[in-house]
Amino acid sequence: MDAEYEIRRVEASDLIQVASIASAELREEYDSKLFSHFYEGFRGGFLVADDGERLRGFILGVPMDNATLRILMLAVRGEFSRMGIGTSLLEACKQYARLRGMRSIVLEVREGNSPAAQFYTSSGFLGVGVLEGFYNDGGQALVMKHHL
Q: Residue-wise pLDDT tens for the chain (148 aa)?
């Protein structure tokens, strides 16, 4: 499990694995067509960690405007968690935003998901608000922001 991996832009052939990772690792239910939609429209900030045999994780960042990138999803296969893959994906997404002249990145974390909130805090994100009823089950989201 310590094989090297590369961070690269998503390809059409990756979408089945991306949907599988999202289904296994994220609490929300996503229609697989959603990933095709983002692949078609926002490929630049849609990145994967690929070890040559399978995807270890992915990040999906889309521009909100010319100055802000919004991370919609970040997920790593369970057996590869806590191996730095999420950090590598997040750093690559930050680099993508910087190269496009963006000044900040925003994201939402389910309130009560302390490990995710701590991960983002350690990566330079700060809590800036709460969204009531953000998730399908009515759960609240902590809005976090990182200035580039």
A: 456 999 999 999 999 999 999 999 987 788 878 999 999 988 889 999 999 999 999 999 999 988 999 999 999 999 999 999 999 999 999 999 999 999 999 999 999 899 999 999 999 999 999 999 888 888 899 999 999 9
The helix/strand/coil state of 90 is helix
Taking the C-alpha atoms of residue 145 and residue 80, their distance in angstroms, rounded to an integer, is 26
CATH of 6-147, one of 3.40.50.720, 3.40.470.10, 3.40.630.30, 1.20.120.140: 3.40.630.30
Give the C-alpha separation, 79 to 99, whole Å.
32
Indicate the DSSP class of residue 28: S
132 DSSP 8-state letter = T
d(CA 55, CA 50): 4
CB 61 within 8 A of CB 96: yes
Q: What is the largest CA-CA distance in the chain?
A: 41
How many C-beta atoms lie closer than 10 Å to residue 130's C-beta?
A: 12
